[in-house]
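Researcher: Please translate sequence to structure tokens.
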Amino acid sequence: QVQFVESGGGSVQSGGSLRLSCAASGFFTDYYAIGWFRQAPGKEREGVACISSSDGSTYYLPSVKGRFTASRDNAKNTAHLQMNSLEAEDTAVYYCAANLMRTRCEPGEMKRHEFNYWGQGTQGTVSS
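Model: Translation complete:
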């Protein structure tokens, strides 16, 4: 089955950290930008970070910039999202996906329809 498998979610207090991981199954990540999205209860899924394949450049949602760091290891077919200084508003199910249309992330709102190979998501809960 072609998809990502996310892991690393959990429950932390405000100000804490979580490190999410994303492992590709059935495909190679080398050629795709990888995006991280989140969906909070009752809200639309939003893109929070993107990391390019071509040069490792990144894009972040303004509300997480400086707190979240995306990384990738193409040799291991994995990606990670380090989340620091977490706030209650960061509580959501987090997903990763591959952008089949781009190798490089574009600044601005991440277009969900460009992403595929979604995983099942991993829950991150931040208590205040």
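Researcher: Any highlights?
Model: The longest strand covers residues 18-25.
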